[in-house]
Write a structure and sequence with these properties.
single chain, 2 domains, six-stranded mixed β-sheet, four-stranded antiparallel β-sheet, alpha/beta, ABC transporter transmembrane region fold, Rossmann fold
Length: 627
């Protein structure tokens, strides 16, 4: 997570955000220009009604020139009609443009977050990121929508009104302008107070949303430990923080509203007193006074508008500020060192004295070195937390070593363009993740444009067909969020089918059969065996059904490789691997046997390789998958 930067003054923050604002506005300058033209017409038409009152009172009523009455009425009606049409056009033009901008920004932020490193995701809650994508960009509609134009329009109307007021009475205008200026100072101070509050609100909202997302996603754990009340208490605490923030902003806004009301009262009372005296002295007419009062309202009313719209713009700037923080995070593939593109992998992976830590000073891996040749199987065994998954993360380029080098086909992996590498990588993780779509969509996630025949063959090899065919909708069955409608074993078979369809050069199996019972595991072993054939494969497994036939086994403890070799050599050493093996061997003898050695294989075929017929069938299937 990016460390918090020291709080900057509001003016400096606005200057910092100015390039981002211009970037948003520039492609839409034509729409904004049209909006400003409409707004000018709208505001000018809005001046017709108050301006006509002087002629109505002084000329029509005072001097009995009733022949002008119809023209005045028609002018007011025409101006009102034009004002209504321009208001409608402004809303249609700018509001829709603002909503398109929001959609584009969400797409841009989501794409950027999707390209960030795994460590960024480890440091930020899912709900927080969702809030950044969905909520923070919402306020920017006021930068392109009617908010900004109305803000400028209000100021422009006030300037028009000020010119007319000066023509009627300089003295009364100077006094009124002095009071308004005092309010302007109060307003600027209030905005300085409000903006940090809105910024903090975005952070609190993200935190609350993040925890709520986790709680809803882990509802089975919550209910399993009867923790509903605890989760409710956590949520209430977050909502209370949000409430306190909202109350602070409401207090500031209330102060502005109170100031505006007092302003109207003071200005109104003062103008009544001075106006009556000016009429009595013959310096202005009754029509002048009524017109002055109407235009004074046009001078003061935008101040109220500034309070409302200014608050919206402040919220927009706060959201843009938070969005800018995310967009400033460097995507994992933007490292200038990543210039090497690998067209087609052979699959050789080397660790050369690799040391890695998630936190400074707390090494997880210590001086790891090994070499996996193309087409071989490397098994990683060891107790939980020993560093096996971290090694897999380095192979998948989720992380970069602090010291040493990970090479693929002799090329430093930290210099390889990830787009050219990961397309040749297949991963079946312990935490099987399925999207809330159909079985077919989840299998095809590896290759969205794969043929139906290729998808079906992958499902057959992974034995997905055995349960999918039993559903009413078959492969169109929706699996639910994270695959909740399938059993653990079924989810894992779908995940394996996805890897089979990907046809990778480097394959990672992280506890790939951990959710399968012995019978289900035996069913897909042939598929896994063929999937691993000819590929550089890395296997993590506590159940050692695939370990025995590995080309090399690395025993990892405390972030170090303490033993390495084949099953036979390590077993003969009677070291850590022997200990792990014998502990399980006494409980599940058949799990350590390769296909053809277990009780599920007919007695006459035990110890023999899989039949050539079966292998030929798998070869045909994989050819079909490759298209």
């Amino acid at each position: 997570m990016t460390p918090k930067s020291p709080k900057k003054p509001t003016s400096e923050r606005i200057r910092t955000l100015l390039p981002d604002i211009l970037e948003l506005v520039r492609p839409r300058r034509g729409i904004l220009a049209a909006g400003f033209v409409l707004m000018i017409i709208n505001r000018l038409c809005g001046l017709v009604l108050p301006a006509s009152t002087k002629f109505l009172i002084d000329d029509v009523l005072g001097k009995h020139h009733f022949q002008y009455l119809l023209w005045i009425v028609l002018a007011v009606l025409g101006a009102t009609a034009i004002q209504g049409i321009t208001s409608f056009s402004l809303t249609q033009l700018l509001s829709k443009a603002a909503q398109r901008l929001i959609a584009e920004l969400r797409e841009k932020v989501q794409r950027h977050i999707g390209r960030l490193s795994v460590s960024y995701y480890d440091s930020n809650k899912t709900g927080t990121l969702v809030s950044r994508i969905m909520n923070d960009v919402e306020g920017v509609r006021n930068l392109v929508g009617t908010g900004l134009v109305e803000f400028v329009g209000g100021i422009m109307t006030a300037l028009f009104a000020l010119v007319i007021l000066l023509r009627i009475s300089v003295t009364m205008t100077a006094l009124a302008f002095g009071v308004v200026s005092i309010f302007g100072i109060v307003l600027s101070r209030a905005f300085k107070t409000i903006r940090p509050i809105f910024r903090e609100r975005g952070k609190i909202t993200a935190d609350v949303t993040g925890r709520l997302t986790e709680s809803l996603g882990g509802v089975r754990v919550v209910k399993g430990y009867h923790a509903e009340e605890r989760e409710s208490a956590v949520f209430v605490k977050g909502v209370t923080r949000l409430l306190e923030n909202v109350l602070k902003s409401l207090t500031a806004m209330s102060v502005m509203s109170l100031s505006a009301t007092l302003l109207m009262g003071i200005v109104g009372a003062t103008m009544m007193y001075m106006g009556a005296n000016q009429i009595e002295a013959g310096k202005i007419t009754l029509g002048d006074f009524v017109t002055f009062t109407a235009f004074l309202a046009l001078l003061v009313a935008p101040i109220f508008q500034v309070v409302a719209i200014g608050t919206q713009l402040t919220e927009a700037l706060a959201g843009l500020d938070r969005t800018r923080e995310v967009m400033s995070e460097r995507p994992e593939d933007s490292d200038p060192r990543r210039t090497a593109a690998i067209a087609e992998l052979d699959g050789r992976v080397e660790f050369d004295h690799v040391t890695f830590s998630y936190e400074t000073g707390k090494d997880v891996l210590h001086d790891i070195s090994f070499d996996s040749k193309p087409g071989t199987v490397t098994a990683l065994v060891g107790s939980s937390g020993s560093g096996k998954s971290t090694m897999i993360g380095l192979i998948a380029a989720f992380h970069v070593p602090n010291e040493g080098t990970v090479r693929v086909d002799g090329v430093d992996l930290s210099t390889v363009r990830l787009s050219s590498y990961r397309t040749q990588l297949g991963v079946v993780l312990q935490d099987t993740f399925l999207f809330d779509g159909s079985i077919r969509e989840n299998v095809a996630f590896a290759r969205p444009h794969a043929t139906e025949a290729a998808i079906m063959e992958a499902c057959r090899i992974a034995r997905v067909d055995e349960f999918a065919e039993g559903f009413e909708l078959k492969y169109d069955t929706i699996v639910g969020e994270r695959g909740v409608k399938l059993s653990g074993g079924q989810r894992q078979r779908v995940s394996i089918a996805r890897a089979i369809l990907a046809d990778p050069r480097i394959l990672i199996l992280d506890e790939a059969t951990s959710s399968l019972d012995s019978e289900s595991e035996a069913l897909i072993q042939d598929g896994l065996k063929y999937l691993m054939k000819g590929r550089t494969t890395f296997v993590i497994a506590h159940r050692l059904s695939t370990i025995r036939r590995a080309d090399q086994i690395l025993v990892v403890e405390g972030g170090r490789i303490v033993e390495r070799g084949t099953h036979e050599s390590l077993y003969a050493m009677e070291g850590r691997y022997h200990e792990l093996y014998t502990k399980q061997h006494g409980v599940q003898m058949n799990l350590f046997l390769a296909p053809g050695e277990g009780d599920s294989v007919p007695e006459q075929d035990r110890g023999k390789p899989a039949s050539k017929t079966a292998e030929a069938g798998l070869s045909d299937a994989m050819r079909m998958i490759r298209g």
